[in-house]
Every structure is written in C-alpha cells, then in structure tokens.
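Follow-up to my earlier ticket, as requested here are the two runs.
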Amino acid sequence: MLWITGFLLVAGIFFFAVGVVGVLRFPDFYTRLHAAGKCDSLAAVLVIAGVALYNLVDFSPANLLVSLKILAIAAFVFVASPTATHAVTEAALIIGMEPWTKKDEPQ
C-alpha cells in the first residue's frame, strides 16, 4: 500500500510541476489559466488520495472515517477547481481581455 501512496504523491507533484511550467511558458492569460486549472485539479486529487491512502496504513474504523473525509475533500476540489477556473476565464472574457493569437507573436 505504501508503494501506491508514494506513486500517487509523486504523480501529484509531477502534475503540479507541469502546471507551473505551463504557467511560466504559455503566452497569455487564458492558456496559463488552462494549464493551471487542469494540472492543479489532477495534482490536488492525486496528492489528497495519496494522503487518504497513507492514513489507512494503520487500519481502524477511526482512520477509515478520516480517509473518507479526506476523499470528500478531494471530490470537492475535483468539482470546485474547474468551476472556479471557468468563472475566472468567463469574467476575463466579459471585461474584454483578448486571447493571444498567432499574429501577436513577435517576428
């Protein structure tokens, strides 16, 4: 079980790092927010699932209840993070922020 926990944590950290690279490398607000939103959601769920699984190493009914609560937090993050990302991009579109296009690229 510790191997699975370690894999989930490492995979989560990897996707956080990929999201950071996307935020630093992409050209405009929309693509940066897309990278952050997708990678952040997946990474957070992986890390939280790893923590929930690690909590079950010493199995007891109390630890099972705590792990279920942690998984409920993961479900909330899985729903709330993309929703918040969508709301922020919609607000940016409403206020008139233009997306990057190929013609904006310097020669």
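Run two:
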Amino acid sequence: MTRALAHRMRRSMLITPAHRPDRMAGAMKLAVDSFVFDLEDGVPPARRDEARANLARLMPALDFGGRERVVRINAVGTAECQRDLDAIPLPHCDALLVPKVEAPEQLRWLDDALARHGASPQLIVTLETPRGVLNALAIGDASARCCAFFFGSGDYTMETGAAITPTALLWARSTIVAAAGAIGCDAIDAPYLHGLRDPHGTHEDALRAKELGFSGKVVFHPAQVDAVNRAFTPTEAEAARARRIVDAFEAVKASGEGTAIVDGEFVAIDLVPRMQRMLDVAAFAQGRSS
C-alpha cells in the first residue's frame, strides 16, 4: 500500500489525561516530540465528556511548537469512540492513537468514519493483545493513514502471563518492528514501568528498544523525557558516520555503482535512507535544543 504520510519525529510520546487541563497546558513546557491527550484509560468514565470539552477548547489554543498533536480515542466499536470522533477538533489533530486494535476491519471502519468527517489525521495503532500482535501486518495494510504502531505491553503481559522483561517481550517487540518495517511506518515502544522516576532504567530500556528498531517510546512522567530523547538521538559519532555514508553515495551516484567504501568498509546503497533518517533525527534534536 502506498503511503504519502507526513513523517513526524516521535522519539518521545507523552500521554496526558484530557480531564486535567492543568497537565495538558503544563506538558507544553516539556521537550516532548509528540503529545497524546487521552480520552481512554487515563480518564474516569464519568469525566469523559469533561475531557472532550477540554480538548475542544485547548487543542486549538495551545502552542505545540510544530510538534505532533495526538488524541487517544476509545476503542473502535464502542459508543465512546463515536462520541470522541464527534467532539475532537480534528483540524487541530495530527493523529489519533487507536487502542486495542486486533483486526483490519477496525481500521477500515475508522478510515470511513474520518472520511465522513472530512478529516485527515494519521493513525497510530496500539497493538496490546496477542491477537493484535499476530495480526500486525494485516492491520497496518488496512489503512494508508497508519503511520505508526505502539506496543502496549501491559495488556499483552496480562493476557499472556509473560513478565515485563526484555527477554519475555522480545518476540512481541520484534514482530511489531518487523511489521512496521514492512509497511514503512514507525514503531513506538511501550513505556518503562519499573520506576517512573528512574532515568537510568528508562534510558537503558530505551536503548534496547532502539537496538531492535523502534524509533521512539511512550513516557508517562516528565522525569523520563530526557532519558528517552537521548536514547533515540544519534550520538555525534553516529551522525558523523551517517553523513560520510550519505556523502559517499552522492559522490558515486553518477557512476551507477551500488556500493561505496566508508571508513575502510564496503557499504551498500540501501543503507542510505536509514542514514538520512538518522541525520534528520540529529538535526531535529539540535533544533529543539538550540
């Protein structure tokens, strides 16, 4: 499926409950790449109408600084989901975070519903059950709006009985990354849950996710933001090598060669998009810190 999606930086995604306008406004001060305002599990059912009203009032007014604006809706097929779609200021929303996705039909229904609203947000798909993970590729192929998968480890471990450890979650994480790579979208890792105020543990967990191929991670606490951003930002050495590879292939392009020698090693041309993406992330990070 062809995807003509605006590619966003999503090193860190902060989920903030929409029934807390103070937290929504306060989140703008954090160095987060993607802001997710929650209408689902983080909001008491009795306060969801209040949360929707906050969204309608605040999303057009807050200064996101060009960063991604996301709303987590309720599960497709529920009455709460339809109420969400009717209330969200969709022109001010870049993406919807869709929970509990298990089948392609859920995305197709949402695609049609958004088309009826004349809205164009992308879809960040939550895979948080064994069935959802097993159906990842078919789910991603169901909608050209799908821009990312988010791994929900909490429900996944509850249903499988697995521990929340790198070893126990390796298969699910790898499967999600593989499906994301197959359809050309991002993979966003689950939050680090073993200590919300543990930046070292958060950073180590984020580095493991980056090694698997994730491009970012959800955070629940401000103390996690810097640790996650650092993990998914190329080091100076990584960025310098990426620049040498991109420049080397620019130099050999006219000759029609498919390999170049960089730092004494042969590198293939299919490495260039990954290196360019690394340079884009480095430039974005530099722009956020300047």
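The only thing I checked on run two: Residues 85 and 113 are 8 Å apart (CA to CA). Let me know what else you need.
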